[in-house]
Amino acid sequence: MSSMDLTGKSAIVTGGSRGIGEATALAFAEAGAKVAVMGRKLEPLQEVVAKIESKGGKGLALQAHVARPDEVGAAVRKAVQTFGELDILVNNAATNPHFGPLIDCSNELWDKIFEVNLKGCFLVTKSCVPFLEKTGGCIVNVASVAGLKPFPLMGVYAVTKAGMIHLTKILAKELGPRKIRVNCVAPGVIKTRFSKAIWENEAILDEILKGHAIDRIGEPEEVASAIMYLASKDSAYTTGTVLVLDGGEML
User: Fold this and answer.
1) Which entry of 36, 61, 88, 240 is 20 to 30 Å from 72 by CA?
2) Residues with catalytic function
């Protein structure tokens, strides 16, 4: 059995300064990969790199806004120049500044959520494909169960994640001939700062857990393990799939 070894591989993880992104970056590094973490703020990225390097790994902080093509392109080129190649892309960057009914979302917040969650995924992928093609690499998108069913008070976010799931399937078909695999994970509620408004609200959390087969929310490391599988040779015959990690919520 393979141990999901990533020795010698190089990866970019967007939204890599905390939560699922940080957990994924650290897991990749522990598996032997060189990891570049991308995000808007440099200091928290550098903190993740320090954690990677403290364990003997090789990390790189890439300051870039995923919805700005010039910044993304420069960051991707820097990663490839530093590591020599690119094998793995994890599109994890996301935002959700609107919490409430979809119809009450302002035009400005609607644009911001789509800009980061969906356009950002597209732009980073577009910049990485020429390099991933050279290595027969792979892409893992971090979607959400909110993209598979209506989710309370997170309608706009859910629409972007539904878009990401379909984007994953389209890219899997289009990039398969170029030897690039594309998959996505769809986590339920994970205990991160991003979802704090949900798991800190007992009424909302209790309502969500009523439908769970496993009576708790998930941890970032559990999602990172699934991403590791999709990024490793263990999943070499898997593309266009949506791996749901929700404690049985979708049941």
Assistant:
1) 240
2) 157
